[in-house]
Structure formats: structure tokens, C-alpha cells
Design brief:
The complex is a heterodimer of chains A (about 625) and B (about 475). Chain A is of the alpha+beta class and about 625 residues long. Chain A has four domains: about 70 residues, Elongation Factor Tu (Ef-tu), domain 3; about 80 residues, RNA polymerase II/Efflux pump adaptor protein, barrel-sandwich hybrid domain (OB fold (Dihydrolipoamide Acetyltransferase, E2P), Beta Barrel), CATH 2.40.50.100; about 240 residues, Rossmann fold (3-Layer(aba) Sandwich), CATH 3.40.50; about 160 residues, Bovine Mitochondrial F1-atpase, Atp Synthase Beta Chain, Chain D, domain 3 (Bovine Mitochondrial F1-ATPase, ATP Synthase Beta Chain, Chain D, domain3, Orthogonal Bundle), CATH 1.10.1140. Chain A has 18 helices and 28 strands. In chain A, strands 8, 18, 19, 20, 21, 22, 25, 26, 27 and 28 form a ten-stranded mixed β-sheet that branches. A six-stranded antiparallel barrel of chain A has the order 1-2-5-4-3-6. A four-stranded antiparallel β-sheet of chain A has the order 12-11-9-14, with no helix packed on it. Chain A starts with a strand and ends in a 5-residue tail after the last helix. The relative contact order of chain A is 0.09. With about 475 residues, chain B is of the alpha/beta class. Chain B folds into three domains: about 70 residues, Elongation Factor Tu (Ef-tu), domain 3; about 280 residues, Rossmann fold, CATH 3.40.50; about 90 residues, no CATH class. In chain B, the strands form four sheets. In chain B, strands 9, 11, 14, 16, 17, 18, 19, 20, 21 and 22 form a ten-stranded mixed β-sheet that branches. Chain B has a seven-stranded antiparallel β-sheet with strand order 1-7-4-5-6-3-2, covered by helices on one side. In chain B, a hairpin with a 2-residue loop joins strand 5 and strand 6. Classes of the chains: A alpha+beta (about 625), B alpha/beta (about 475).
Chain lengths: ~625, ~475
């Protein structure tokens, strides 16, 4: 049957064409402009096509050609440091080719064709050997931080007929040939292709065991996410989702970060494009862009390409995972993706269920998030994809469909609060609404690598914050004077934790990233101040005196005064806590508490005439 | 295909006209509709197939009869003719003159839908625009190429605020070195009015006239009693003009669009007539994409002199910030200026509610070399202290001001001074950023030094000046 047909009907991004041989999911080229689209439904001899580009100017009667394959991404060396649109077209190359506006019908391959890469074949491979998908053919030093492994694409197996010598090759050069069981010969190149909507295979799923260190205290210390986990950041506009996502992209201890800007602001992406190349990875000291890849589909780009962009990002993430790497994929925002689904469903006249969303919203979201995880790869290595999705609930209402479905799927939930953001408490992660199902697993890591008291102290701090929240409710009714001394001290300590620990400035160079050691140290010190203060109150010290301690203001500035590399200085500074409280203890302790010291102090007080009676 | 006329109207309702048995018409093409009185209306193809072509008639479908209506397919997309002579002129929603002068003649015309800017081609906006309004300059700074909407409610003075911004906006560092004529040459204003009343339209006109910018203004206007469907094309026409002025003629263009809620309502009207599946409050699911197509045309482009700064006015029905139009707008724009009914009632002008207001691009447009070194910390401290003062206020409302602690009372004084002196400045006062920051220090100095934790010790030493207690 013919793969060519004609366009019948055009309605926004949805085009119906007579294409009797097209399969759903297949790519279709439309009209004189050659707009690309994908078949989403078949109806008798017609195909319903969603078009990735603006369909203006398309008319009925123009040709439609089925391309024979689903939408695929190109995978190979040269991806890292790149910025692509939702269809994996390189934006920099497009800029050079067509100027500042994106022209329609332009297909540019993702990888540069003329660039030569230094390929070194794997030493343990022998000609004639039986190999299968996932096996390592060799590697290419893509940049100084990244040795890009070239794998046999999944699905191909057989006898290795030949493999090139070490040397410089383009992505199109054949580097190996494999004869499969049917005798068919597959030519392997540095670049390979994979359909975006099909998860890449692996041997088995693994338990996630290690927390993703983001350097953000509210995340790492209070609501950890594991490598291979699924997290969501919901929040109304202006709550700081994007800044937080960018912080994760900057500071996460992952090998590869894939940032998908899905239906977001053009200027924000420009900010990322401007600032990331100037940043260095705090661990390797190399430019951050060497491990970063951006997929940018701004809100004014066509809606169908937006729907596709998250799959493009995820497929690339899986490709790096299969090389045995830890990948973080950040999707900002999944709501825009869901809205793209809704828009297409609406145009198809599908029955809406909640707020106009189609019935398959929940299952589509779940299937997508399920592509995250820590796996044993086809070659027996371990790799992970951690997925962090921003959610933009309309009106900040967390009960709306996208947020509530997402909440069911993910394991770590960082809820952003408008109230906190209004008071410029950033990151505006609400410690009462947020949750993490990974605390116990993360605790194992913290106990081994940082301190055995981590879980204890983390829970204690969280309890203090919760208690303070209840006390605040009382204060709002009857005023702070109605509280007991201990209660007021609890409020003050919670405030100290909020301002000295939870608040973290993305702009302060010393505060933007906080190492686990510094996080724990600050947590411990804040709780120490609280405990010692509470002791003083039992000794009869008036709470007003305690609230006036200059130490409280100093402790709030520790986070910005000492960087993660200045732990020694922070420790020295923290030692000051002890004499401050010892002096107070001496002042207020009853004679029986510590005989010698108290007696001395007692005498001193008497001689000064200021002693307690 | 030749431009041919057809008389095969199938139905007409709610601004839509359906045609049968037409040739293959391209999506988005412009259409001329000739009614039985011989009056010409313009339309655009929004759905096309061999059997049926759906036309959105910009002047509406009132008084159309199916038998005697002729439709002419012009076989060209919706384009706007562009020329420098547009400056100082007034047009309707489709770019035809409204001021009784002849139409623009030029070889250059562009598709009003524009094409998306490649994100890699954008330049990040970071040039501070001084609006002379403390709440904006000091706390929600506007930069060139930003899109910063004004969220308002019925009866609130959003138009006055927009007009004040237009009158006072200037670049800080150009002021001293460049004379007024030169500044004027690179400045242009595109004013897009959708569904506004005659009196509002006149207010803007007079305001532009007074400030002597009338020659730099291009006005596109669709009044409250004009056909609502025309509002769908008007912002696109206006932005096509703005892009021409900014990226062809190297001007810094400020676009004021009022009121985007009326635009969205027109979109809802057509969507309902088309039978689109409604999402929230009856608005179609593509409202976000549609608004983004408009707002995202603001910005700067690498290697180009000009810029487009966009100030849309969005009125919030029943003051509801979660209403779909302000809500989706907030997700697209780089912040928002929110007006407050309470402040307006207290006679404070402009009544900017600073806590829900935000400028996302502020951080890169302020500080040393751009405004003043302490700017970011002062703004952060004002936000924090005013938020705290609001808590104290609600507490005072319950337990009475007498029961408050000494510190809380100082917060109340601060809030009072902040609102009347910092926020309140009237329509004519044009404050420099330095005056704004000095004023901020004056009101912050009403608070005890210990609570000003967002300021550095150095700032406090240099600028904290508590008033000598009179008690």
C-alpha cells in the first residue's frame, strides 16, 4: 500500500489525512512546507495526525506522507552541553541557519555530522564473538569530564564481524558490523536511534540506595530523594519552582543532568543558557555544561512539540543510564505537558473527566514517571534516572488533577507555599505539606557517611517545627504573652531553624550549595542551642533574657558566613555556644547543680551585689 | 488559487461563519465577508476541510443572512502593513486607521502571528528601567524586555498606574548623558486597548499628550462597544507592530495592553461557539498556549538594539487571583504587580500590594553598577518586615494594640509609615531609585536594629538611622 495521501481537514494542531497505510505513532510529513507530525488515531482509511509545528497556511488537498517510523531521538557523542528544542533539533545550529526566529518544516539532525570523535574500541571484544544489545563497543572522550560509552543498541545481537581500530570517526561512520541469527548484517555507528515513547530495556530494577545530594538543606536533610527516585515540586506561580529546579540542576551529585523546559518562559531558558556555561561543577571543578543537556520548548512553541519534549528528554536520560551513569532529569513543568495532552484531547472531542483533562491523564503520568528508577543495565552495570517534575497547579490548588495524580505516583513531594514565598522565605518548601518516603533509606547513607545521629536530629527538628506551628496558631488568637517560657523558646528555636537552616539563598555564593557535612553541622548546632536554652529556662532564666542573646542573630548568619569548604572555621565559631551558655548557667544555676563552679560564681555574685537571693 | 467569491454559507452564529463547497482554503487565511448591505467585514479561517470551512468573523456575525452573504477568500495570511509612519497613529484591531487619516502604505507587511523566537537567540533582560514608582523600582524592579502585568480589579486605578509608568519610565544611566530628544528617538510606545471604555481611552490619550510622547505612540483600539471578536486579533496586530519598531527600527518599545481579561473572554466566546471542550470556568484548554503566544513576543534578541517590554493589564474578576486569566498569566509573565483594594480605599496611590507582587528578573537588573549595592538586601528586608508587620496587625485586631509587645508596636509604626510614605506617592511624584532606597532606609529605621537580619552589618552601620525617641 502507498504511504502517500492527502490532507482532508485542518483544525489547529490536529490534521486529518487520507493515509490508509499509516500506523499509529508513525511520523507523517505534511504539505508543501513539510511539517512533521505523528499519527495518534486511525479512522477507516484516515489518519488523525498531531502536528509538531504551527499548521497555519496548510490547506486540504496538500500531500501527506507517512515516514515509516515513530518519532526517534538521535543518541551519540555530542549531546552533552547541547540545547535542543522539543523535537531534539539543535537550537544553536538553527540560529546559525535561519536566524532568530524558528522557521517551520526545518529538520536538522541533533548531532553534528562533520565532527570527528576519538573512538577507542573496548579491549575485551574479539572479532567473531557473540555479542548482544547493551554491550560496550568502546568509548569516546566527549569532553574532559565524560567518557561517552558506545553501546550496541538494545535489540541487536549476533556475531561481531568487524570493529574499527582506535581513531577519529564521525557519528555516521560505521564502526562495527554484527551478523544476527537470521544472517542479516547490522552496521553500527557512533550514533544510534531510539523511539521516544518506548522505554529503553534493562535487565532488572534495583533498589534505590543512595540519596541524591542537591546541596539544598530542606531537600537533603528534611525530605530526601534517592537516586532513581521520583520527586515532584508543586507550587503556584511565583513560589520559586524554577529557581529550585535550576538549583537541583546546578548542584546535584549526578553524572548527567537533563533539564527539560516544557512550556516555560523564554527569558528563563536564556538565563539558564547564560549562566550554566559560567558555572563549574563543585565536585569535578569542570564547567557544568559538560554534564548538562537542555531541552527547551518555550510556552510559545507549538503545543504538540511540548507534549513530545518530556519523552525526548527521558529517552536521552535512559541512554546515559544504560552507560552506567546516574542521571537526573528535571521537567519544568509537567503541568504544561498535561495541558498539551488536554489540548489535543479537546481538539479530538474526547470526553473530558476532570477540569477538561482526558480520562487517561493519570495512567499517562504514571507510565511516564515509571521510566525513572535505578536499574541493572543490559550489560550488568548499574545506572539510574531520577525524575523531578515541577507541577504548576492552577491557583495553587493542590487538589487539581495533575497535582493529585502526581502526588500518588511520586515518592518525594516538595510542596511550595505561596505564603512562604510572599514572605520571601526561599526555598518556599512547606515542611508540613511535604513528604519523603525515602527517609529511612537515606538515613542509612547519612549514618554511614556523615553522622549516626542524623535521623534522630532530623526528626527532632521537624517535630520542633510542627510544635511551633501549633503554638503559632495560639499566638494568632491570644498573643505571644500567653505562652509559657518554654513555649516561647520553642517558637524562637523554630524560627532559628527556619531562618538559619531552611532558608537558603540561591544567590549567596557561600549558601547556594551546602554540603551534607555543613547541613548536619548547622542542624546539630541549632538543636544544641535549643536544648541548652531550654535547660536555662528550667534553671529559672527568664525567656526574655534568652531571646536577647546575640548568639541567635549570629547563628542565623553562619550559613552565609562559612562555605562548605570552611567547616573548620564553622566548628571554631560553634564552640562559642558552650561558653555563652556556661556563663548563663553559672548565673542561674542553683548551688546544688555544680558545686564548685556554682559556689565560685555564687561568691562572685555576692561580692558584686547582683546575685539572686 | 484565485481569490474567488462564494455564497455558500451554511450557518452563522457566535462570531463564526461556516462555508460549504469551497475550494481548498489554507488555515489562518484572511477572508472578506460582504453582507447583504454591501458592508465589508474581515475574517480568518480557523478550520478548513474540503467540505466545510469555519471563519471567525472579526466584526461578529450579527445581521448576517446566509443567502445574501458573499465570502471572498483572499488567499493570504493575516498581515499587517508596516512603516515608520505608524508612529502617532490610531488603528482598529485589524490595523485599519481609526483617526480619519489615510491607511499606511508600504511594501513591508508581516504575518500577525509572528514566529517563535529561538530561545538561543534571546538576550537576557538586565537593564533597569526606572519607573519613578517606589514599589516597582525598589521592590519589583522592571527591566527592558520583561513582561510584567498589572493585576487589578474593577474600580482600581490600574490605568492610572499604567499611564504613570508610561510617563516616567526611563533608563537610569542614560538620563544624565543623553538629551531628551535623543532618548525620545529610541523610545516608542504601543498601546493596545481591548474592550476599554471611551473615557478610559480618552484618559490614556490625554496622558500621552501631556507627557509629550504622543508622536511616539502607536495605538490599536477596540472599544467596549466594538465587536468583541476583533479583540482576538488586536494584540497580535499590536505586537507585530512592536516587533517591527523594536527589531527593525531599533527602538525600545513599551507595550501596554489593557485589558487581557476581555481578550480571554472573547476567546472563550469563540471557543464555546466552536464547541471546544471547556476546562476551567468555561475557558478553552488552550488558553495558556494562546496567552503565551502573545506574552512571549516580548523580550530582547542578541545583536539587536531594540527591545519589547510588555505591561499587560489583567483585571481579576471578583478580585480572584486564582481566576484562569490572571493565574495563567502569572505562569507566563516574569512576575506581577498586584493592586490592593484596601490600600486604594485608604487613599494610597498607587495601591500596590507588595507582598503578592513579584519581579522575577529583578535579581539581575539591580545592585552595584546598575542601581545601588544594597538594593537587593533592602528589598528583601522590606518584604520580610512588611510580612511580619501584617502578622502583627492581624494579631492586634484580635487582642488589641495595647496588649502588643514593644517590638510589635514598632512593627505597626513601620507598616503605617511604609504604606503612607513608601507605597503612597501620588500620580505625579517621580522618585529616583536613590530616593526610593533612602526612603526605604528611613522606614526600616523605625524597626529595632536586631530584627533587620537580611541587611548586612555594613549596610546597617552606613545607613541605619533610628529616629531619636521623642517619648
Amino acid at each position: 500500500m502507498s504511504n502517500a495521501g492527502t490532507i482532508l481537514d485542518i483544525q489547529g494542531p490536529i490534521v486529518t489525512a487520507r493515509l490508509p497505510a499509516a500506523r499509529t505513532g508513525e511520523q507523517v510529513k505534511l504539505g508543501a512546507l513539510g511539517l512533521m507530525g505523528e499519527v495518534i488515531a486511525r479512522d477507516e482509511d484516515c489518519a488523525v495526525v498531531q502536528v509538531y509545528e504551527n499548521t497555519e497556511g496548510l490547506r486540504p488537498g496538500e500531500p501527506a506522507v507517512a515516514m515509516g517510523q515513530p518519532l526517534s531521538v538521535e543518541l551519540g557523542p555530542g549531546l552533552l552541553g547541547g540545547i535542543f528544542d522539543g523535537l531534539q533539533r539543535p537550537l544553536e545550529a538553527m540560529l546559525a541557519l535561519t536566524g532568530e526566529r524558528i522557521e517551520r518544516g526545518l529538520m536538522i539532525p541533533a548531532l553534528a555530522r562533520d565532527k570527528r570523535w576519538a573512538f577507542a574500541p573496548a579491549e575485551n571484544l574479539h572479532i567473531g564473538e557473540q555479542i548482544k544489545g547493551g554491550a560496550i563497543l568502546g568509548s569516546v572522550p566527549e569532553n574532559p569530564s565524560m567518557a561517552h560509552r558506545i553501546l550496541i543498541p538494545p535489540g541487536i545481537s549476533g556475531e561481531l564481524i568487524d570493529l574499527v581500530q582506535a581513531g577519529d570517526y564521525t557519528v555516521d561512520d560505521v564502526i562495527a558490523r554484527v551478523r544476527d541469527a537470521q544472517g542479516q548484517i547490522h552496521k553500527l555507528r557512533l550514533a544510534s536511534y531510539w523511539p521516544v515513547r518506548k522505554p529503553r530495556p534493562f535487565q532488572g530494577r534495583d533498589h534505590a540506595i543512595q540519596p541524591l545530594i542537591t546541596g539544598q538543606r530542606i531537600m537533603d536533610t528534611f525530605f530526601p530523594l534517592l537516586k532513581g527516585g521520583k520527586g515532584a515540586i508543586p507550587g503556584p506561580f511565583g513560589a520559586g519552582k524554577t529557581v529550585l529546579q535550576q538549583q537541583i540542576a546546578r548542584w546535584s551529585d549526578a553524572h548527567i543532568v537533563i533539564y527539560v523546559g516544557c512550556g516555560e518562559r523564554g527569558n528563563e531558558l536564556t538565563d539558564v543558557l547564560d549562566s550554566f556555561p559560567k558555572l563549574t561543577d563543585p565536585r569535578s571543578g569542570r564547567p557544568l555544561m559538560e554534564r548538562t543537556l537542555l531541552v527547551a520548548n518555550t510556552s510559545n512553541m507549538p503545543v504538540v512539540a511540548r507534549e513530545v519534549s518530556v519523552y525526548v528528554g527521558m529517552t536521552i536520560a535512559e541512554y546515559f543510564r544504560d552507560q552506567g551513569l546516574d542521571v537526573v532529569m528535571v521537567a519544568d513543568s509537567t503541568s504544561r505537558w498535561a495541558e498539551a495532552l488536554r489540548e489535543v484531547a479537546g481538539r479530538l472531542g474526547q470526553m473530558p473527566v476532570e477540569e477538561g483533562y482526558p480520562a487517561y491523564l493519570g495512567s499517562t503520568l504514571a507510565a511516564f514517571y515509571e521510566r525513572a528508577g535505578r536499574v541493572e543495565t543490559l550489560n550488568g552495570d548499574h545506572g539510574s534516572v531520577t525524575l523531578i517534575g515541577a507541577v504548576s497547579p492552577p491557583g495553587g490548588d493542590f487538589s487539581e488533577p495533575v497535582t493529585s495524580h502526581t502526588k500518588d505516583i511520586i515518592q518525594t513531594f516538595w510542596a511550595l507555599s505561596k505564603d512562604l514565598a510572599d514572605a520571601r522565605h526561599y526555598p518556599a518548601v512547606d515542611w508540613l505539606e511535604s513528604f519523603s518516603l525515602f527517609v529511612d533509606t537515606a538515613a542509612r547513607w547519612w549514618h554511614e557517611n556523615v553522622d549516626e545521629d542524623w535521623l534522630l536530629l532530623r526528626n527532632r527538628a521537624l517535630r520542633l517545627l510542627t510544635e511551633a506551628e501549633e503554638l503559632n496558631r495560639i499566638v494568632n488568637l491570644v498573643g505571644v504573652e500567653a505562652l509559657s517560657g518554654q513555649q516561647r523558646w520553642t517558637l524562637e528555636s523554630a524560627k532559628l531553624i527556619r531562618e538559619g537552616l531552611l532558608q537558603q539563598s540561591a544567590l549567596e555564593p557561600k549558601d547556594s550549595f551546602c554540603s551534607p557535612q555543613k547541613q548536619f553541622m548547622l542542624l546539630k548546632l541549632m538543636l544544641d542551642i535549643h536544648a541548652r536554652g531550654a535547660d536555662m529556662l528550667t534553671l529559672g532564666m527568664p525567656v526574655r533574657e534568652l531571646l536577647r542573646l546575640p548568639l541567635l542573630a549570629e547563628a542565623r548568619r553562619w550559613k552565609i558566613t562559612f562555605s562548605s569548604d570552611e567547616m573548620k572555621s564553622l566548628e571554631q565559631e560553634a564552640v562559642k555556644i558552650v561558653p555563652v551558655f556556661d556563663a548563663l548557667r553559672a548565673e542561674y544555676a542553683s548551688p546544688s547543680a555544680s558545686k564548685d563552679q556554682a559556689e565560685d560564681e555564687f561568691r562572685a555574685q555576692i561580692s558584686m551585689g547582683t546575685g539572686t537571693p | 488559487m484565485k481569490a474567488l467569491e462564494y455564497r455558500t454559507a451554511a450557518w452563522a452564529r457566535g462570531g463564526l461563519l461556516a462555508m460549504r463547497n469551497t475550494p481548498d482554503v489554507a488555515l489562518g487565511d484572511r477572508v472578506a465577508v460582504l453582507d447583504h448591505l454591501g458592508k465589508r467585514r474581515s475574517g480568518q479561517v480557523i478550520r478548513t476541510s474540503g467540505e466545510l470551512v469555519l471563519i471567525q468573523v472579526l466584526e461578529g456575525t450579527d445581521n448576517l443572512d446566509l443567502e445574501r452573504t458573499w465570502v471572498r477568500f483572499l488567499d493570504q495570511p493575516f498581515e499587517l502593513t508596516l512603516a515608520p509612519e505608524m508612529m502617532g497613529r490610531v488603528f482598529n484591531g485589524v490595523g485599519q486607521p481609526r483617526d480619519g487619516r489615510p491607511p499606511i502604505v508600504s511594501r513591508l507587511s508581516r504575518n500577525v502571528n509572528g514566529a517563535s523566537i529561538n530561545p538561543a537567540a534571546r538576550a537576557y533582560p538586565r537593564e533597569f528601567i526606572q519607573t519613578g514608582i517606589s514599589t516597582i523600582d525598589g521592590m519589583n524592579t522592571l527591566v527592558r524586555g520583561q513582561k510584567l502585568p498589572i493585576f487589578s480589579g474593577s474600580g482600581l486605578p490600574h490605568n492610572r498606574l499604567a499611564a504613570q509608568i508610561v510617563r516616567q519610565a526611563r533608563l537610569l544611566h542614560r538620563e544624565a548623558t543623553t538629551d531628551v530628544a535623543a532618548t525620545n528617538q529610541e523610545f516608542a510606545l504601543v498601546f493596545a486597548a481591548m474592550g476599554v471604555s471611551h473615557s478610559d481611552a480618552r484618559y490614556f490619550e490625554e496622558s500621552f499628550e501631556q507627557s509629550g510622547v504622543l508622536g511616539q505612540v502607536v495605538t490599536f483600539i477596540n472599544l467596549a462597544d466594538d465587536p468583541p471578536i476583533e479583540r482576538l486579533i488586536l494584540p497580535r496586530v499590536a505586537l507585530t507592530c512592536a516587533e517591527y519598531l523594536a527589531f527593525d527600527l531599533d527602538k525600545h518599545v513599551l507595550v501596554v495592553m489593557t485589558d487581557m481579561t476581555y481578550y480571554a473572554e472573547a476567546l472563550r466566546e469563540i471557543a464555546t461557539a466552536k464547541g471546544d471542550v471547556p476546562s476551567r470556568k468555561g475557558f478553552p484548554g488552550y488558553l495558556y498556549s494562546d496567552l503565551a503566544e502573545i506574552y512571549e513576543r516580548a523580550g530582547r534578541i542578541r545583536g539587536k538594539e531594540g527591545s519589547i517590554t510588555l505591561i499587560p493589564v489583567v483585571s481579576m474578576p471578583s478580585d480572584d487571583i486564582t481566576h484562569p486569566v490572571p493565574d495563567l498569566t502569572g505562569y507566563i509573565t516574569e512576575g506581577q504587580i498586584v493592586l490592593s483594594r484596601e490600600l486604594a480605599a485608604a487613599g494610597i496611590q498607587p495601591p500596590v500590594a507588595v507582598l503578592p507582587s513579584l519581579s522575577r528578573l529583578m535579581k539581575d537588573g539591580i545592585g552595584e553598577g546598575m542601581t545601588r549595592e544594597d538594593h537587593a538586601r533592602v528589598a528583601s528586608q522590606l518584604f520580610a518586615s512588611y510580612a511580619k508587620a501584617q502578622e502583627v496587625r492581624s494579631l492586634a485586631a484580635i487582642i488589641g494594640a495595647e496588649e502588643l509587645s514593644e517590638e510589635d508596636n514598632r512593627y505597626l509604626q513601620f507598616a503605617q509609615a511604609f504604606e503612607t510614605r513608601f507605597v503612597g506617592q501620588g500620580e505625579t511624584e517621580d522618585r529616583s531609585i536613590f530616593d526610593t532606597l533612602d526612603l526605604a532606609w528611613e522606614v526600616l529605621s523605625l524597626l529595632p536594629r536586631e530584627v533587620l537580619t537580611r541587611l548586612s552589618e555594613k549596610d546597617l552601620d552606613a545607613r541605619y538611622r533610628p529616629a531619636v525617641s521623642t517619648q
